[in-house]
Amino acid sequence: MDDWTTSHDRVLEQRNAEGWMFLIEAARSLRTTGAITPSSKALARLLTDPVDEHGSQPLNVLEVGAGTGSVTRTLIRRLAPGGRLDIVEANPRFAAQLRRLVRSHPHLGDEQERVRVHHALVEQFETDRHYDVIVSGLPFTNFTPTQVETIMNRYLELLEPGGTLTYFAYRGTRYARALTAFPAEARRHRAVEDVLTGYQRRYAIGRWSVWGNLPPARVWQLRRPAHPATSAAPAKPLTLMGGASR
Q: What pTM, to 2 d.p., does this model score?
């Protein structure tokens, strides 16, 4: 058996293990896990594009709600020399998996200290660092409107002026909940979307759909104004290759 075959088999084995882990954690608490499968490569690429936009500049990057690390792997590959990645994960089993990922990732080598995993809620995450890019994998539509507003305000506090936040939501969840959920649950879902719409109108600079994800997802990109008087311009229509579109 050659080295490529061995490496390929290990990748497939790892992906299968992570898929099962997602299913197990979703069964424990879908409200905090928010998904039954890891993010696709197309979704991970869109979420992490702001890191590449800075070229070789070392950045401070924060990932929140990393799960088993499907987006984390892309972030580590895109992190320039001298850059720093903090990962905040509330699920203790996911946090342990992420620490194993960091220890074994070939791109880090002897520089594993550049990536740190914090088992915490982002609202309670204590740091004196500010971030150029924040990538959020939190399932906002599973939270209360108050929780979402608290988290979004925390993101804005942690961002550098001019810094970028990317997050995603699964498409069609409002209609699914309207058909299957109790009226109170459907109202909560609509209220969360209303909160997010307020931040989108104020800060959004881009929006894309990823049809190749399971389920299909919509990615939002927001930017903290570089100056308090600056307001974000609305995103222009945009179509991307690779299964992503506005």
A: 0.80
